[in-house]
Amino acid sequence: MGKNTEIADIFERIADALEFKGEMVFKVSAYRKAARMLREYSGDISSIHPSEIEGIGKGMAEKIEEYLKTGRIKKYEEVIADIPEGLLELLNIPNMGPKTLHLLHKELGVNNLKDLERVLEEGKVAALPGMGEKKEENIKKGVLLYKAGRSRIPLATALKVVREVISPLSDISEEISPAGSLRRMKETIGDIDILAAGEKTQEIVDIFTRQSYVREVIAKGDTKASIRTIYNNLQVDLRVVEKDCWGAALLYFTGSKAHNIKLRGIAKDRGLKINEYGVFRGTKRIAGKTEDDVYRTLGIKFIPPELREDKGEIEAAMKGTLPVLVEQKDIKGDLHIHSNYSDGMDDIETVTLAAKRRGYEYIGICDHSKTSKIAGGLDEEALKRRNEEIDSIQEKIKGIKILKGMEVDILSNGSLDYSDSILEQLDFVIVAVHQGFFKNVTERIKEAMRNPFVDILAHPTGRLLSGREGYKMNIEEVMEYAAKMGVALEINASYDRLDINDVNIMKAKGYGAIFVIGTDAHSTGMLEDMELGLGTARRGWLEKKDVLNTYRWQDIPFRRRR
């Protein structure tokens, strides 16, 4: 992460400032695009020339070099010079666009969150031109979502941070692992917990607190320490334990609290005691080196971390009915990838080669349909050209199948953005709601799923982890209808979506639904988000047979084949 993240954050703030000031869209987009490319670049930006990263143009490269040499970017200082500190942060509030924020700032003197909450409480927002009570109420809801979200870390961010933190500790530690809700792959995380084991306890703690990612050492002792990182001040807690109690400690600090409480009850019924140091009969430790030992001593089969939420997993393990969860090695392809024909960053050949390097047997190119103009949606002629290019690339690249898909908009009356004669030419069809989030969404989705060419419903609730609530709909009714019609529900693995979530996955599985994990990738770097979707699928108790993209492409039971 390091410099890449620092510069990406600055580019994002420049984009926010330009958008607030009403600059041209292409200028704002250029900075956001550069920020995204920097975040997805896995190497160290300071070790190469910035222009070597695809998508970074000459102007952005010069600004990156300026930062690497001087620690500052003049353009950033220029654009924020006349903007009050804290004002641009309000753009992260759901339902708060740059025009609205500019109006609130100009007419009501809103400069920060405190100011915004004050004018909302006083009812002054609704009286502004073009606002009204409904808009005011939506902003109030957005503030609540924003304040709740600030205390949680997105799973994708936490995974990147924990890997950087663990890396320098791996050689000296005999065992090391993230714990807590991160290890359980929850969609958002509180503080990041790391557990290590090794004889050189003090050295492990010292190395942890001396890294370049440390902004502040909050506390430090012989076996544990807490730091605040340079990455949005995220807190990371380290605890070092003895090798003999590694399994018990990992189980204890992974949680969840409810799962651990139930285990303690089972231990007590057997005349045992369980804690972070092991399983004890009296004062004698009888298990604790591995998690498997601890579970086995309690008469329970090993329970994967993602399931440890006290949702019946302990009872299932005792009965031998735990699901065999889907794994990364089961995933044979990604069925939701955008190319540069719509709003993707990379051309089809680049995407295909990147997927092949990941070991995939197939990919599904799913660009946006024509109504999604802001996303560069394809009209029928552009779709024809894209399909012809897929055929041409397929002849050049062997060993991976390129499937012709599309992410087709569900229109206001439930009809689709293309005629059936066009849909029939595709290998599969994903449908999605991209506009009209509050009107007849349930009925529109159900109507779309009646179309015999529809195979997958994308991001079924439309929520964003960064704060958007999603569609006004009856998700249970939609999931049950999808199961009835044989339409797969997408687990959208994009880091800000993870939609549908684990709770809805379990409900939908109960209805008999089938699923697909798709990254919704808009660049080759986003293919890595499959890990996030997989974690969500596992939290939803899904097995290999439940997920379409674990099949060989010839055997995928798309709806029209069944």
Summarize the model shown.
With 562 residues, the protein is α/β, with parallel strands linked by helices.
Secondary structure elements and pairings:
Layout: H1 2-20, H2 25-40, H3 58-70, H4 74-80, H5 98-108, H6 113-121, H7 133-150, E1 153-154, H8 155-166, E2 175-178, H9 180-183, E3 188-189, E4 192-197, H10 201-209, E5 214-220, E6 224-229, E7 235-241, H11 246-254, H12 257-269, E8 273-275, E9 278-281, E10 284-287, H13 291-297, H14 313-319, E11 333-337, H15 348-357, E12 362-368, H16 380-396, E13 401-409, H17 420-423, E14 430-432, H18 441-449, E15 456-457, H19 475-485, E16 488-492, H20 502-511, E17 515-518, H21 530-539
Helix pairs in contact: 1-2, 1-4, 11-13, 18-19, 19-20
Label the CATH architecture of the largest domain. Alpha-Beta Barrel
Query: Roughly what percent helix?
Result: 40-55%
* Measured distance between first and last alpha carbons: 45 Å
Number of helices: 21
Major beta-sheet overview: 7 strands, parallel
CATH class of the largest domain: Alpha Beta
Which band does the percent of strand residues land in? 5-15%
**Low-confidence parts, pLDDT < 50 over ≥5 residues?**
none
- Average of pLDDT: 92
Please tally the β strands and state the result: 17
Give me the CATH superfamily of the largest domain. Answer: Metal-dependent hydrolases
Number of domains: 3
Please provide a written account of the structure.
The protein is 40% helix and 14% strand. With 562 residues, the protein is an alpha/beta fold. The protein has three domains: 149 residues, Orthogonal Bundle (DNA polymerase, domain 1); 166 residues, Beta Polymerase, domain 2; 234 residues, TIM Barrel (Alpha-Beta Barrel), CATH 3.20.20.140. The strands form four sheets. It has a seven-stranded parallel β-sheet with strand order 11-12-13-14-15-16-17. Strands 2-4-7-6-5 form a five-stranded mixed β-sheet, sandwiched between helices. Helix 1 runs antiparallel to helix 2 and helix 1 packs parallel to helix 4. The radius of gyration is 25 Å and the shape is globular. The model has no long low-confidence stretch (mean pLDDT 92).
